[in-house]
From TrEMBL:
Keywords: Lipid transport, Lipid-binding, Peroxisome, Transferase, Transport. NCBIfam families: PRK08256.1 (NF006102). InterPro entries: SCP2_sterol-bd_dom_sf, Thiolase-like, Thiolase_C_2, Thiolase_CS, Thiolase_N. Residues 6-226 form the Thiolase N-terminal domain. It comes from Photinus pyralis. SUPFAM superfamilies: Thiolase-like. One of its GO terms (biological process) is lipid transport. Pfam families: Thiolase_C_1, Thiolase_N. This is propanoyl-CoA C-acyltransferase. GO terms for cellular component: peroxisome. Its main location: other. GO terms for molecular function: acyltransferase activity, transferring groups other than amino-acyl groups; lipid binding.
Length: 478
């Protein structure tokens, strides 16, 4: 598998629905900004993955055609609020598995005013399992379904761990304060803690200023391979995707606890997988963008991601370890609560913010010393995407490494290449530690019918094992 880099990002300002134009306008702005940021042309993009929820089929084609009709494959994706993260995940895999060397992830939304609605009344809801549990345990009210779920999840946390209502309000206070410095944010007003607690009640423990607004807007990211980055001289600003994992609902999601019903176990499972594969730990991170559709979800996510121990989120908040001067800075953008939440754009907007932070380009909201960034994007029904980002082309890559990369041929064209990729995945997921029986370094030489040779190095001497492609036989140990 190859390394993957974000080489350009762009956003439109997130705005109140109906106040800023059509989805085509938002998406074109974000796409053009991402292309300019990456210093590439639309003709260099080999395929595109487009996330949105509210729109007709083929909206992805409609917006990309505004910048050029190149014939590239365009994939439209809908995973509720994680549609943007899903598009990003697909784009990352396209580069990682050498399908394309330069791809686009684009997300946008043009939403209707008011609460989210289930548009199709003549068929089963995709949230039918969630609705049934809610109905059985608490009944259903006329308030928006998501706010009911998260309010009940928050009350579970209060009863189980002694969390106070002020802890949820403090999260909203922090995010509104952060957004003052974000020119892309829909809401840039700062509120006192008392104003947040006394704002109109939406449902249960959640007040208006603890809930994200619906929004119009778009975000885009250009992802590329290491070879593309080096051959186009983009090393200085390329942000590496160290890892990105996705998870859908688990049996435990429906164990009749609201904390799991809103995605806690999904997030915990996928975060553990991400940190294990990247050989990182939560305490290594400095800056985080989490899916704070409600203040409750941000609090739950602290624990699910491992930023603090179970039941200790309240203490983390009281210490200020979720803002500037603390252990982490969470949602420097203002998060969904204040930046806004155009469903299809959110996951990619999180990526954009973290790239600005890693590159030191976040202006007044810059997190000092940010070198490792964590993203969390959640969608009901369900899917969770988490990712780790770091500045990719640092001085640790010496001249010899650069020469070897420049000399290495593309592994495409070798029939066995996909099987070595599968082997690497198997090694990474070896939960039974079977690999302990086969510690060593193994070299494989493969020859095409044309006579061209390729070499794969399988190193199982330490860790979970790695698989690398190389065409230089002198570097292979047999």
């Amino acid at each position: 598998m190859g390394r993957v880099f974000v080489i350009g990002v762009g956003m439109s300002k997130f705005v109140k629905p109906g106040t800023g134009g059509d989805y085509v306008d938002f998406a074109k702005e974000a796409l053009c900004k991402a292309l300019n940021d990456a210093n590439v042309l639309i003709e260099q993009i080999k395929r595109a993955y487009v996330g949105y929820v509210y729109g007709d089929s083929c909206c992805g084609q409609r917006v990309i055609y505004e910048s050029g009709m190149t014939g590239m494959p365009i994939f439209n994706m809908n995973n509720n609020s994680s549609s943007g993260g899903t598009a990003l995940h697909a784009a990352k895999e396209a580069v990682e598995f050498s399908i394309s060397d330069c791809v686009l992830a684009l997300g946008f939304e043009k939403m209707e005013r008011g609460t989210l609605k289930h548009d199709f009344k003549d068929r089963s809801s995709p949230l039918e399992k969630h609705i049934r549990i809610m109905s059985d345990l608490h009944g259903l009210s006329s308030e928006p379904f998501p706010v009911q779920l998260f309010s009940h999840a928050g009350m579970e946390h209060v009863k189980k761990y002694g969390t106070r209502l002020e802890h949820f309000a403090k999260i909203a206070y922090k995010n509104h304060k952060h957004s003052v410095n974000n020119p892309y944010a829909q809401c840039r007003d700062e509120y006192s803690l008392d104003e947040i607690l006394k704002s109109p009640n939406i449902f249960g423990l959640l007040t208006k200023l603890q809930c994200c607004p619906i929004s119009d807007g778009a975000a885009a990211a250009v992802l590329a391979s290491e070879h593309f980055v080096r051959t186009h001289g983009l090393e200085s600003r390329a942000v590496e995707v160290l890892g990105m994992e996705m998870c859908t609902d688990l049996p435990s999601s429906f164990d009749r606890t609201f904390i799991n019903l809103v995605g806690f176990d999904m997030t915990r499972t996928v975060a553990q997988r991400l940190f294990q594969k990247t050989n990182r730990k939560p305490s290594d991170v400095q800056v985080v963008e989490v899916h704070d559709c409600f203040s409750v979800n941000e609090l739950l996510t602290y624990e699910a991601l491992g930023l603090c121990e179970l039941g200790k989120a309240g203490e983390m908040i009281d210490r200020g370890d979720n803002t500037y001067g603390g252990k982490y800075v969470v949602n420097p953008s203002g998060g969904l609560i204040s930046k806004g939440h155009p469903l299809g754009a959110t996951g990619i907007a999180q990526c954009a913010e973290l790239c600005y932070q890693i590159r030191g380009e976040a202006g007044k909201r810059q997190v000092e010393g940010a070198t490792l960034a964590l993203q969390h994007n959640l969608g009901f029904g369900g899917a969770t995407v988490v990712a780790l980002y770091a500045l990719g082309m640092s001085s640790q890559y010496n001249d010899q490494t650069r020469k070897e990369v420049a000399m290495a041929k593309d592994e495409l064209g070798f029939t066995v290449a996909p099987y070595f990729k599968i082997l690497e995945q198997v090694l990474l997921l070896d939960e039974q530690n079977t690999i302990d029986k086969f510690r060593g370094i193994y070299g494989f030489k493969v020859q095409k019918r044309t006579g061209e040779e390729g070499y794969w190095l399988v190193n199982t001497k330490t860790g979970k094992g790695t698989v690398e492609f190389n065409n230089i036989s002198d570097n292979i140990l047999f």
